[in-house]
Amino acid sequence: MTAMTRCLDRPGLMPRLSAHHLLRPRLAGPLLAAQARVRLLCAPGGSGKSALLAECALQAPKECQVYWMPLNGAALTPLDFCTRLAQYLGLRFIDEATLLLDLSRWPNPTWLFLDDFCRLPAPELDALLDRLLTASSPHLTWWLGARRRPLCNWPRLLLDDELLECSELSFSAAEIQTLLAPGQSVDSIMQFSAGWCAGVRIALLGDGHPDKTLLDYLQHELFNTLPAPLVDAWRVLAHLPRFNQSLCEHLFGIDDGAQYLNELQTLGAFTQPWEGTSDWLQVFPPLARLMRNAPWPTKHSWHRRACQWFTAQTDWQAAFEQALLAEEYELAVSLLQHFSFEDLFRQQNAVLLLRLHEQHGDELMLGSAQLVGLVTAALLFAGRFEQAALCIDQLARFAPQPTTAGQRYLLARWQAQWGWLLHLSGDAGRSREHFLEALQALPESAWTSRLMCLSGLTQQALLRGELDVAQALNREALCLARAHDSLVLEALLELDHAQLLEQRGAPYRAQSLLETVQAMLARQRLKAGPLVGRIVLRRGHLALRQGQDNLAAECFEAGLTMCLQSQDKRVLYGFLGLALLAANRGDYARAFIQLRDAERLMQQRHVPDTVYRAVLLLVSGHFWLQQGRAELTVQAVRRVLRHFRGPCAKQAPPATLELIPRLEYLLVLAEVKLGCAEQPITRLNALLDTSRQRGMLCLETELHLVLGEVTWQLGDPALARRALQAGLALAGRCQVQQAIRELRLRAPGLLSELGMEPQAAPVGAVENPLSQRELQVLELIALGNSNLEIAERLYISLHTVKTHARRIHSKLGVERRTQAVAKAKTLGLMV
């Protein structure tokens, strides 16, 4: 994207940057500041090498001569290259030896730019370049732009600190933001291009046909430069998620496969390491996606051959995916025999299982008890309870088993699956019976089923407020998962653990736990996307509870996207979180749109209303109360509470442990506002006593604040003050800022009227909420130290530093490092 023009203050021709060029000091800065004598930009076509080199050339020091030598990727002979180089430098060319001597004696500071060095393998030319780099004067700085890495002695230059190499030239999201036209979004541009410069430029054209333009670009810049066999091989590889030499030899032949792969790598044909590994490659994802979306008649046969190779390697996940792409559905189902419950949470397996079940029905999908279990789990995950019930009943087809032990195992599996269906449907009593009976009958070898029964019992104990029981069950299940080295199931159980910590008034500990678990999952080769979606949503909930709205918004947005992709019914909580954030800003129109979208999606996916109706009405009731529409809250809450009272009372959804007491106190608040409440203080005190006995500190905090609000409205300011003081103290201890914010939204003048609105305290007049170690960390933050530097200074782990920082933010009610330092100074905690 550069043109040549004569520059008045430089000899010869200099590049002229495009009118659309965006300066990138993030990349140019290190290149310009480097002391290295050779600066190599090696990246595929369209990466912006020429533009970046031109940007640097135009910023050369005044005393420095600049020579720009455009090579246009041509395969020159060594003689032609020497002749042209001498001509550009103003030297009289005699022979190579004379040129090398002249370069070794070069007297003045000079930058020499070789733009678009030879694109095809040229050993003789590469050897010449190596000799030129070795012999040239220290005053001569070489700037090279190339699609392939010339065969030079780069290690020697690197060891001598004479080489700076740059290969990652993509635009950042912030840089793309500055280029956007109205109606364009960073996310859409990044999804199309992954920051690749040519892709970004094509996406920004806004011509409505970016895929066609990109295909044309690919045809000219790649396909026209490759031999036909390499083009065909590249198309095949673009349809595969990953490949290596062995797979290429299986696909293209023993000799040709290795040769094709080596040549594509050498030519910089948009191949790159797969997920940071050294033994696997992939085609650049935006281009791979483009090729997969384009029609290609022979793709099924290639996917079939890839499936054969992955099967031989016992890579069941990749073999299953390739069988589906080859439309070999019976083969794909047969490969599922190698899958376990853990695999449901990997890749897009849950969605693929649901799709297979929809398209091919029971006859193909339910041929074994193991398949029934997988499909049932996927259906429960998505919230399709009616279909799950029909699926579980299919286990009867495999009875009786030939042995008593086999029959007992089959029955126990049926009980475990039916127990989960009842649990998610709100039938706690029968579900508990099934779980307990299944645990008695399941053999030790069926540890996954035992673990899931323990998880179900853990969630039921949490819903009953039996936190000690829940902790014991959760610990037993975690020990089982760790004993079998199942990080995926361990992470699933840590979600229960995080809810337990939150109930005990430690949301910051729960947040730290989930961040650690998510980081552990990110290091796995097979991504647990569906599970990570749930973890991110729970992190958003915890961040919101602690008043960290920016972090909460990021988590809710990311978790919502992931759960939509995996068809997880918990996507509901992404919408709810965004609705609560909108209400915090006073944007109730947006908040109700989020609730409407959540309900619409649940209905479209045929999720039973027991999963979402009560939760939606609870949040709606909060919003109506904040808007002064208490009558709507009363109507909705009275209607929904009928389902949770009496002999046939339903259990609350497992992801919303405080649903029923929150509905109860919300009803009291609304009835008091309307003047129709019966014994409101008695009812709230009963809820408060229950939460206190159970050790549910976060709920106790909310109830104290609600009691203060109700007694204030009933004309008892003394009791209101005592209740609010208790609530505010507990909120500070547990970092429950959202409860205080909701109080302000319901009763804006309450805390001010009672003189309880927090005020900035004079220096030294406030109790220090930070521990000594947290204060040490904050002081080092104030001095500008990074987390890694703090870890080294204090001899603690990086993870511990992050945990301290998160707790500091939570205790001080801030979201950024700079805010924490400023708040601490305001409070007199540090100078």
UniProtKB/TrEMBL annotation:
Keyword terms of this UniProt record: DNA-binding, Transcription, Transcription regulation
InterPro entries assigned: P-loop_NTPase, Sig_transdc_resp-reg_C-effctor, TPR-like_helical_dom_sf, TPR_MalT, Tscrpt_reg_LuxR_C, WH-like_DNA-bd_sf, WHD_MalT
Record SMART domains: HTH_LUXR
Keyword hit for DNA-binding: yes
Domain of life where this protein originates: Bacteria
Domain HTH luxR-type: 763-828
Protein name as catalogued: LuxR C-terminal-related transcriptional regulator
